[in-house]
Amino acid sequence: MRLLMSLIGISGMLFFAFSATQAHHAFSGEFDSTKPVNLRGKVVRMEWINPHAWLHLAVVNENGDEEVWMIEAGPPGALVRRGWRKDSVLPGIELVVQGYHAIDGGNRANGREVTFPDGRRLFAGSSGTGAPIDGADITEQ
User: Domain residues for 34?
Assistant: First the structure.
Protein backbone atom coordinates (compact mmCIF):
# COMPACT_ATOMS: atom_id res chain seq x y z
CA MET A 1 0.00 0.00 0.00
CA ARG A 2 2.85 2.40 0.83
CA LEU A 3 4.49 1.63 -2.50
CA LEU A 4 1.25 2.35 -4.34
CA MET A 5 0.77 5.65 -2.49
CA SER A 6 4.39 6.63 -3.20
CA LEU A 7 3.96 5.90 -6.92
CA ILE A 8 0.75 7.93 -7.02
CA GLY A 9 2.48 10.83 -5.24
CA ILE A 10 5.48 10.75 -7.57
CA SER A 11 3.21 10.55 -10.62
CA GLY A 12 1.24 13.56 -9.38
CA MET A 13 4.38 15.62 -8.80
CA LEU A 14 5.70 14.78 -12.27
CA PHE A 15 2.36 15.68 -13.83
CA PHE A 16 2.26 19.09 -12.12
CA ALA A 17 5.92 19.80 -12.90
CA PHE A 18 5.36 18.97 -16.58
CA SER A 19 2.16 21.06 -16.71
CA ALA A 20 3.87 24.11 -15.20
CA THR A 21 6.77 23.86 -17.63
CA GLN A 22 4.47 23.59 -20.61
CA ALA A 23 2.42 26.61 -19.51
CA HIS A 24 5.45 28.89 -19.62
CA HIS A 25 6.94 29.49 -23.04
CA ALA A 26 10.36 30.39 -24.33
CA PHE A 27 10.80 33.86 -25.85
CA SER A 28 11.85 32.43 -29.23
CA GLY A 29 8.66 30.38 -29.44
CA GLU A 30 6.53 33.51 -29.74
CA PHE A 31 8.72 36.56 -30.42
CA ASP A 32 11.41 37.50 -32.94
CA SER A 33 14.56 39.13 -31.54
CA THR A 34 15.42 40.39 -35.05
CA LYS A 35 12.21 42.45 -35.24
CA PRO A 36 12.38 45.21 -32.66
CA VAL A 37 9.37 47.49 -32.18
CA ASN A 38 9.13 50.99 -30.77
CA LEU A 39 5.51 51.73 -29.88
CA ARG A 40 4.01 54.99 -28.59
CA GLY A 41 0.45 54.88 -27.38
CA LYS A 42 -2.05 55.22 -24.59
CA VAL A 43 -2.71 52.54 -22.01
CA VAL A 44 -6.00 50.76 -22.61
CA ARG A 45 -5.57 48.44 -19.63
CA MET A 46 -2.96 46.52 -17.68
CA GLU A 47 -3.52 42.92 -16.68
CA TRP A 48 -1.55 42.06 -13.51
CA ILE A 49 -1.74 38.29 -14.01
CA ASN A 50 0.76 35.42 -13.75
CA PRO A 51 2.93 34.16 -15.30
CA HIS A 52 3.14 37.39 -17.38
CA ALA A 53 1.49 40.76 -16.97
CA TRP A 54 -0.01 42.19 -20.16
CA LEU A 55 -0.06 45.85 -21.14
CA HIS A 56 -2.68 46.79 -23.75
CA LEU A 57 -1.61 49.88 -25.68
CA ALA A 58 -3.64 51.88 -28.24
CA VAL A 59 -1.19 52.85 -31.00
CA VAL A 60 -1.90 54.96 -34.10
CA ASN A 61 -0.44 53.16 -37.12
CA GLU A 62 1.06 54.65 -40.31
CA ASN A 63 -2.41 54.88 -41.90
CA GLY A 64 -3.73 56.93 -38.98
CA ASP A 65 -5.83 54.05 -37.66
CA GLU A 66 -5.76 53.09 -34.01
CA GLU A 67 -4.83 49.51 -33.19
CA VAL A 68 -4.45 47.88 -29.81
CA TRP A 69 -1.19 46.06 -29.12
CA MET A 70 -0.74 43.45 -26.39
CA ILE A 71 2.65 43.81 -24.71
CA GLU A 72 3.87 40.86 -22.69
CA ALA A 73 5.77 41.86 -19.56
CA GLY A 74 7.36 40.00 -16.69
CA PRO A 75 5.46 38.56 -13.73
CA PRO A 76 3.65 41.12 -11.57
CA GLY A 77 5.91 40.56 -8.55
CA ALA A 78 9.04 41.18 -10.60
CA LEU A 79 7.54 44.34 -12.13
CA VAL A 80 6.73 45.75 -8.68
CA ARG A 81 10.29 45.02 -7.50
CA ARG A 82 11.57 46.97 -10.55
CA GLY A 83 9.50 50.04 -9.65
CA TRP A 84 6.21 49.44 -11.45
CA ARG A 85 3.03 50.45 -9.60
CA LYS A 86 -0.57 49.72 -10.46
CA ASP A 87 -1.33 53.44 -10.47
CA SER A 88 1.51 54.16 -12.93
CA VAL A 89 -0.21 52.33 -15.80
CA LEU A 90 -3.74 53.69 -15.60
CA PRO A 91 -5.83 53.88 -18.79
CA GLY A 92 -5.10 56.97 -20.89
CA ILE A 93 -1.45 57.41 -19.86
CA GLU A 94 0.88 57.67 -22.86
CA LEU A 95 3.88 55.32 -22.84
CA VAL A 96 6.70 54.40 -25.17
CA VAL A 97 7.37 50.67 -25.29
CA GLN A 98 10.43 49.08 -26.83
CA GLY A 99 10.39 45.36 -27.39
CA TYR A 100 10.18 42.59 -29.94
CA HIS A 101 7.38 41.76 -32.39
CA ALA A 102 5.46 38.49 -32.33
CA ILE A 103 6.62 35.89 -34.85
CA ASP A 104 3.12 35.64 -36.34
CA GLY A 105 3.13 39.39 -37.15
CA GLY A 106 0.10 40.14 -34.97
CA ASN A 107 -0.28 43.16 -32.73
CA ARG A 108 1.66 41.53 -29.91
CA ALA A 109 5.13 42.18 -28.61
CA ASN A 110 7.40 41.19 -25.78
CA GLY A 111 8.15 44.37 -23.85
CA ARG A 112 11.69 45.24 -22.86
CA GLU A 113 11.76 48.87 -21.78
CA VAL A 114 8.89 51.22 -21.02
CA THR A 115 9.29 54.99 -20.83
CA PHE A 116 6.74 56.82 -18.69
CA PRO A 117 5.53 60.43 -19.18
CA ASP A 118 7.87 61.66 -16.43
CA GLY A 119 10.88 60.18 -18.26
CA ARG A 120 11.29 57.14 -16.01
CA ARG A 121 12.37 54.01 -17.85
CA LEU A 122 11.53 50.63 -16.39
CA PHE A 123 12.49 47.16 -17.55
CA ALA A 124 9.39 45.18 -18.48
CA GLY A 125 10.85 41.88 -19.63
CA SER A 126 11.06 38.42 -18.13
CA SER A 127 14.29 36.77 -17.17
CA GLY A 128 15.07 33.17 -17.98
CA THR A 129 12.91 32.97 -21.12
CA GLY A 130 15.64 33.37 -23.71
CA ALA A 131 14.66 36.98 -24.47
CA PRO A 132 17.45 39.35 -25.44
CA ILE A 133 19.23 40.63 -22.36
CA ASP A 134 18.56 44.02 -20.81
CA GLY A 135 20.75 46.56 -22.55
CA ALA A 136 20.30 45.07 -26.02
CA ASP A 137 20.13 47.61 -28.81
CA ILE A 138 16.54 48.48 -29.72
CA THR A 139 15.99 50.59 -32.81
CA GLU A 140 12.81 52.08 -34.16
CA GLN A 141 11.07 49.84 -36.65
Answer: 27-123
